[in-house]
Amino acid sequence: MTKNVLITGGSRGIGLGIARALAKGGCNLAINGVREAKNVALALKELQGLGAKKVIYCQGNIAVPKEREKIVTEVLEAFGQLHVLVNNAGVGPLKRLDVLETTEESYDRVMDINLKGPFFLTQKVADHMIQYKEKNTENVPCIINISSISATTASISRGEYCLSKAGLSMMTQLFATKLGEYGIPVYEVRPGVIETDMTAKVLQKYQEMINKGLMLQSRIGSPEDVGQAVLALVEGKFPYSTGQVIMVDGGLTIPRL
């Protein structure tokens, strides 16, 4: 059965890497983003060419309640059912500031998009999935949260980002606990250093650290690396692992002497 998937922030970066992998897997894709539709047209066309059966674009900011409602409504109108939610959308601070200098404005912006938005979007989608699951047993829905090694690795120049990802990690456990009684798994995929727009300005720094042994696999990760992990979850390859963290970090977080 073809799965219908909503990917927030799915038109570029890690989100697009996930979308590419799921397109090759033959999923129907609802791509969410804040850019105008004309600016993501090439990405949508690419996904169709990779094998996605149907691709739609749902413009909207997940931090805004009315826009979350609009996104879910558009997905259900297009597909009828939603089988998979991938909470990928996220931002870093507009300006990296020391934890002693971070502003409330920056804190609120990052937390609203990275944590509050996904929390209430998941709440709404979960209600739909519960109703779907009661009537359909052959296609198990799931929720996948894309966090970051920043959930457990402190970075004092972007404290608000670290807090948002730590919160997203706990959010995974909370929804996994609640939805367990309905047989709906919830997973966390935790990327390490991935080459995206967000890391573009510090890639040289990371590459120098990698050359000195920062991680076990001596390369920067790609969005496609994350996409392959998400595809495995969507395909049900981890049926007995709800609430668990799938690391995609090249061995960066393994403690070493």
TrEMBL record:
Highest taxon of the lineage: Bacteria
Residue stretches in coiled coil: none
A single Gene Ontology molecular function, please? oxidoreductase activity
Q: Per UniProt, what is one Pfam family of this protein?
A: adh_short_C2
Key words, A-Z = Oxidoreductase
Q: Which SUPFAM superfamilies match?
A: NAD(P)-binding Rossmann-fold domains
Family named by the database record: Belongs to the short-chain dehydrogenases/reductases (SDR) family.
What this protein is called in its record is 3-ketoacyl-ACP reductase
Q: Which organism is it from?
A: Ulvibacterium marinum
- What does the record give as the organism's lineage? Bacteria, Pseudomonadati, Bacteroidota, Flavobacteriia, Flavobacteriales
